[in-house]
């Protein structure tokens, strides 16, 4: 059996970033990919933190109204925190499927493939049970 190099000069959607990257030493690629992955994790963490701060700011809004019958002011929350948190959970659990579908649309020049809709439908079916 021949020694056939696997993934030689492969051009994916995102990686490799540079020409002849597959010819770089394996150790160097491992370190660079690991650093890139850690940077992406930090970016997702920062985006999540900003989103949570925004949700906290929205849900902590209060309104002060005057009650005629008691001749006093009453302070109440504008948003229900439970509803806001459930919305966040729904958005967070569906975001990977939605982004996968968007990436597929962009790659296929706005034509839907099998991956995006199937993933969304399969995820929705899994969430029911």
Structural features, described:
- The protein is elongated, with a radius of gyration of 24 Å.
- The model has no long low-confidence stretch (mean pLDDT 81).
- It contains three helices and two strands.
- It has helices at residues 26-59, 81-107, 115-128, and strands spanning 62-67, 72-77.
- With 129 residues, the chain is mainly α.
- The longest helix is centred in the first third of the chain and has 34 residues, at 26-59.
- The protein starts with 25 loop residues before the first helix and ends with a helix.
Keywords:
elongated, 3 helices, single chain, 2 strands
Task: Describe the structure concisely.
The chain is mainly α and about 130 residues long.
Helix content: 55-70%
Report, as a whole number of angstroms, the end-to-end distance: 48 Å
| Backbone shape | elongated
Number of helices: 3
Q: Specify the biggest β-sheet.
A: 2 strands, antiparallel
Radius of gyration: 24 Å
Beta fraction of the residues? 5-15%
Strand order of the largest sheet: 1-2
